[in-house]
Amino acid sequence: MKYLLILLILSLSAFSQEVLVLNLERASEIALKFNREIRRLKNEIMSLEDTYRAQKWDRFAPKVDFLADRYSYGFFSEILLLDLGNRLARIRSAKISTQIKEELLKELERQVKIRIVELFMKLALAEKKAEVRREEMAVAYVRFDRERDRLEQGLSDRVKVAEWESTYRRFRSQLLEAQREYNETLLEIKRFLGLDLSVPVEISLEDMLSFEVPENKTIDTSYLLRHIKDNYLVRVKELEMKYFESKAQEEKRIFYPELYGYLSVRNYYEEAKAFRGEANILLRVPLFDGRASFYRVKSFLDRRRAVEIEKKDIEESLKRDFLKAPYDWDELVGKYEDAVTFDNWAQENLDLSRSNYELELAFDLGYAMSTKTEAERRVMEAKFNIILYLMRLYAKMGKDPMEVFKKPIPFFVDRVEEI
Question: Which of 9, 72, 227, 361 could be stapled to 268 by a disulfide with Cβ–Cβ 3.0 to 4.6 Å?
Fold first, then answer.
């Protein structure tokens, strides 16, 4: 898949007139490969992995030195045979640092997917807003033009003409604002995905527009609470606690034995070409450390306790968010149902205006059309807010937020009406 995406980008550069069609799935695939923040974090992880491998190699890697003085020269080799002390802790610390970054990368990938959906929604709402303003502007211009004709016939005055011109100019300004927002968002989508800004793209909104709001459902908070431990911040804090424990272990040097092997080969000048070799095994057990390691150990353990408090606070915050989720859901669904009801009224009003169409009532039909379009925009916005809320709930549980579009949502249960 990675190579197919690379070929896709290269082909787009070669054939700049070809339009790239982006739906949510395809945009996510491209972003996870080419988003600059993700690429930067992946390089950081590679750096930490190299540090981890270096610490592992350094533990038992042999060391060879060349030594020379006024009496002789030679080679001295040293290798660690057994280590029960801080070297092992350094390896563990390097591994935990990598794991922390990997958790951050997983969360960044989740947030990138949510951001893609936000940008797609912003684009859709800007397009709908432009449609509303275009219809309002058309009606206002007709009224303005007609009022000018009435002024020439002596049936109106300059105040009314100026009023309708002001209304027309206001709607036109709002249309230009919506068009600017649409094009700005389109450029931001390409930049965020890591695409060349000159690549022509077409955005498919089918996944979001076809999303069905489960109106007769409520949220099972017990399901959410079971996944607090899977939240990325909770997992990161757990790893940070282990990291500071490991760093404290690095500072402990007393009574940790180390077994070394030595090999020395020397040539004394007075003996010409004769080399002397000597091998030995040395057991080293530190008995006293005057470098105040006790305080450094205590410092890391204090930081571990501070992180533990942060972890508990995060868990309580998540618990609060999950327990109030049914009420947040009811509010969002209530706003959606209100928007749908307004849309139904707007459709009835539009049908009535069409059935009563006369020249004198043409303006009423224009207003009814713009009202209907605005109602559709409100329904769209309410649905989008529901989708984003559900995606953020998924992310808080450490799950892929795109699962909202792929399968039944597992934390919904049937609503039971109280009698």
Answer: 72
- What is residue 10's predicted lDDT score, i.e. its pLDDT? 47
pLDDT of residue 106: 95
Q: By the 8 A CB rule, do 214 and 409 touch?
A: yes
DSSP 8-state code for residue 403: G
Domain count across the chain: 1
In degrees rounded to 5, what are phi and psi of residue 261?
A: -115, 135
Four-CA torsion 21, 26, 28, 34, nearest 10 degrees: -80
Enumerate residues 6+ apart whose C-beta is below 8 A from 154.
none
Determine how many CB atoms are found less than 10 A away from the CB of residue 379. 21
* Confidence (pLDDT) at 18: 83
Q: What does the alpha-carbon distance between residue 407 and residue 401 come to, in Å, rounded to a whole number?
A: 11
Report the distance separating Cα 244 and Cα 77, nearest Å. 34
pLDDT at 285: 81
Please give the Cα distance from 32 to 110 (Å, whole number).
10
The answer as to whether 128 is a domain residue is: no
123 inside domain: no
> How many Å apart are CA 162 and CA 105, to the nearest integer?
58
List of E strands, 217-287: 217-219, 258-268, 275-284
State both tokens at 312.
């508990």
Asked if residue 343 is part of any domain, the answer here is yes
pLDDT of residue 396: 96
**Distance in angstroms (rounded) separating the CA atoms of residues 366 and 135:** 7
**Which stretches in the chain have pLDDT values below 50?**
1-7, 10, 12-16, 359-361, 419
| Residue ranges with strand state E in 273-363 | 275-284
Residue 358, domain extent: 211-253+294-419
Q: Measure the CA–CA gap between 318 and 232, rounded to whole angstroms.
A: 11
